[in-house]
Amino acid sequence: MSSVTTKRIVLYRFDRQPSEGFGRVGPFVPGVEVELMSPDGNLQAVSLAEVKAICFVSEAGQANLFTEHTFFERRPKKPGLWTRFTFRDGDQLDGLLSLNLLEWPESGYSAVPPRAGATRQWVFIPRLAVTGTELRGVVGKPVSPRKQGGKKTLGAADENQLIMFEP
């Protein structure tokens, strides 16, 4: 039996003002509506096809995900795939995706936005909202070669790899 967790979110829709409230954390399934409860208690059901992005926050703030700091100014320091998303309305947003492709849900992407903090911790981007993605870079720790008796050895899968730099 899975548990349902409610988090504070800012819901971005196409051609509308962002809405702040409380919503359920995944799984987001196409065809199923996203429920948003506003701070004053009104409940809205929004189709996932209308959603541009869902930004998870820990405290109230300005809804500026698509107006301020939409791109990374420098290469991110956390490991992940540095990706640029292009939305149906032409807006673009950078995000850092998990290196583990199995963690990507079928319905969209969970990314860490630029200048992540209390007012923009992570973002869920539905696949229906995106017209293009661009891989900007792979950020991660280098894999250290296996050592055997103090001498570096290549594994069976590494034998065909070109060694460019010797440490």
Assess the beta-strand content as a share of residues.
Answer: 35-45%
For the largest beta sheet, what order do the strands appear in spatially?
A: 4-3-2-1-5-9-8
Largest sheet: 7 strands, antiparallel
Helix fraction by DSSP (H/I, runs of at least 4): under 10%
Report on this structure.
- It is a single chain.
- Helix content is 0%, strand content 40%.
- With 167 residues, the chain is mostly beta strands.
- The strands form 3 sheets. Strands 4-3-2-1-5-9-8 form a 7-stranded antiparallel beta sheet, with no helix packed on it. The protein has a 3-stranded antiparallel beta sheet with strand order 7-6-10, with no helix packed on it.
- Strand 11 and strand 12 form a beta hairpin.
- The termini are far apart.
SSE diagram, text form:
Layout: E1 6-13, E2 19-24, E3 33-37, E4 43-47, E5 51-56, E6 80-87, E7 92-97, E8 108-111, E9 122-126, E10 130-139, E11 147-148, E12 151-152
Antiparallel strand pairs: 1-2, 1-5, 2-3, 3-4, 5-9, 6-7, 6-10, 8-9, 11-12
